[in-house]
Amino acid sequence: MKTDLLIIGAGPAGINAALTADAAGAEVILVDESLQPGGQLRQQTQLFSNLPKNKKKTRGTSLNNHLVESLNASNVKVLSNHAMVGSYLNGNIGVTDGFKTFEIHAKKYILATGAQEEGKIFPGWTLPGVMTAGAAQILINRELVLPGKNAVIVGSNDFAFEVIKQLRICGVSIKAVVEDKDQLQSEKQDLLSDLGNITFLTNSTIELASGSGEVEHVSIRTPSGIKELEADFICISNGFTPILEPFEVMNCKFTYKEILGGWLPAYNMNFQTTNSNCYLAGSAAGITTLGPILLTGEIAAWSVLEELEFISPREAHNQKKECWEELMTLENNNVFQKRTEIIADSLLQDNWNPKSYFTELQGGQIHG
Amino acid sequence: MDKSTIVCRCEEINIDEIENALKNGAQTFDDIKRLTRTGMGSCQSKVCLHPVREIIADYHNKDLQDVGISRMRIPLKPIRMGTLATESKDSNVASVFGESVEEGDENR
After folding, report:
1. Domain range annotation of chain A
2. What's the CA gap between A202 and A220, in Å, rounded?
3. Helices (H) and strands (E) in chain A, counts
């Protein structure tokens, strides 16, 4: 199978990249391992603001419906229920539908394979009833299954609070929120105030989860001693980290930025990895929020379109400039700063000249 | 934490076994993998990679950013050998396996 552009991962970044490339006339194949496109957006019922200017504040699921509708109306060839299994020595990507494995040769690749949740280990974490916040969200919003009646939440980041809100609406009782740091991690006060009276245990960790064949009992080590709770469900929200395997088999180099999720592929301002045929987009390029995820998909697509000469360098320049400016406005400052550090490193290595708009964004200089 | 706590659930490896590997000279995730089978189960270290990195960082008194990741290999998903071998008319499956043979192994 041959195409101009092969995109792995049909989440918001992959779909947005596909739509951008398709609209400019490129032939696009979009591969996703799930039965339906949308990625993690499929169960994100929470409201998202801070979206690019052509999109209003909306629920993740509504935005997903909109993206999938656009995808269906486009010429993008979507291969759902197909997984990337590896790369061939000739650089092509191997894809399987579970019955056969075949090779796709594309002129360029965009890997938009997203992030995975970080687990947390404690005695008893392997018991049924322990799961990540993302898994709990899939159960309630997609599978319509209640993960438990009485929950202990581990972690207090934004995502934990969004999921707590949704669990409560489903009738789950929140017995405690356990945070090992000395203060709650979410900085969003509106999320906190929505939660009402919940027991927050800071400087605390789970000492033991126990039960016969499933979680029944949770012991929590707090500064004031051990607290015992009856709970059948432990929900871990310990942040996200970029998925690296597809990049390793495509021979991309990695770098480390804690705030972007730890190890992640190195890339330049075109979202091009150290494998020049291979671009990236979305959470794979660093953990961020939905608006920036959509924009990174767009920048990667414009870069590919420029490289394949579907658009002029001038148009590519203007489109990417617009995206980067919007990205800087929408993205958390610390996250954006670390992103530019990665790009600054790529400039040092490639002797690249940064585009003028990029140095303007950085106040006239680009520094790691 | 209790040393009997499982870290790699696929292969049922606990903290004690990982620390033993470290005492025997293991420096990297891949060292621990070879000595204990940590990360060699069905999830291929998707769950235990970072908890193990934390244990390595603690043991060797390193920053987490100085502890590398595991070598990740084809196939990226569990797949039947038969599926890997079918319908590969425009290339050959040997090239899929060629990766691990030709590039060898690098310790990070």
Report:
1. 2-116+240-361, 119-236
2. 11
3. 10, 21
Element (H, E) at A235: strand A233-236
- For residue A56, give the amino acid letter: K
Contact assignment for A85 to B50 by CB distance below 8 Å: no
- Say how many CA atoms lie within 13 Å of B51 toward its Cβ: 25
Does residue A329 surpass a pLDDT of 70?
yes
Are residues A248 and B90, on separate chains, in Cβ contact within 8 Å?
Answer: no
Paired tokens of A239: 């942040």
A221 — contact with chain B (CB < 8 Å)? no
Which CATH number among 3.40.190.10, 3.40.50.720, 3.50.50.60, 3.20.20.150 corresponds to the domain A119-236? 3.50.50.60
Same fold, A2-116+240-361 and A119-236: yes
* Superfamily holding A2-116+240-361: FAD/NAD(P)-binding domain (3.50.50.60)
- Could you read off the pLDDT of A90-128 as tens digits, one per residue? 889 999 999 989 999 999 999 999 999 999 999 999 999
In terms of CA atoms, which chain B residue is nearest residue A95? B84
A94 touches chain B (CB under 8 A): yes
Does B40 touch chain A if contact means CB atoms closer than 8 Å?
Answer: no
Place of tokens 């000469």: A309
Instruction: Using an 8 Å CB-CB cutoff, list chain A residues near B91.
Output: 88, 90, 92, 103
Please give the residue of chain B at the shortest CA–CA distance from A115: B46
End-to-end Cα separation, chain B, in angstroms: 27
Torsion angle of alpha carbons A69, A70, A72, A73, nearest 10°?
A: 120
Q: Tell me which H or E stretch contains A67.
A: helix A60-72
Residue A318 CB coordination number (10 Å):
14
d(CA A125, CA A325): 43
Q: Residues B54, B13: contact at Cβ < 8 Å?
A: no
Render pLDDT for A220-245 as a digit per residue (tens, 0 to 9).
Answer: 999 999 999 999 999 999 999 999 99
Average pLDDT on A57-72 reads: 95
